[in-house]
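Re: that chain you flagged

S.,

Sorry for the slow reply, it's been a week of failed gels. I finally had a moment to sit down with the sequence you sent. For the record, here it is as I used it:
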Amino acid sequence: MSSRQRAGSICAVTGTVLLWIPVGLMIVTAFIGSLSAGRLLMDYFMPAELFFIVLAGWILLLIGSIIIQRMRILVGALGGAAVVLLFGSQLTAVLSGISSGAAPAEGLIWYLVLGMLILYDVLVIVLGVAGIRLLYGVKAGS
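Prediction finished late last night. Pasting the structure tokens below so you have them in one place:
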């Protein structure tokens, strides 16, 4: 493995780990909270709250995929879509008045905001899976 491949692998591993941290924390806190409350509790906002960790992971995964020259378009498109969905949900909540409390959290706009946040969470998970697939492809190729 050349030093270039090694650098790409290190970026990809670090990025993948950073992408899975918010998801892992969401699952751990959901498990603990659900056990203590006796019902299912999950903070699906956690990947959005830890956006800068997700952003750092995406950038490192993108750099790794560019260096390794595999899955560049997929990683770029998934990360870009995740960022657009997160900022779109925030913009929708602010413009509709849901975030300030001026409008009640109900109706179509509320479901639109929640849907974009849930899709953002799903895209973070898919990015994490793409990182694992990228690393597996590097390992199988070398």
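What I noticed first: The chain has a mean pLDDT of 92.

Talk soon,
D.
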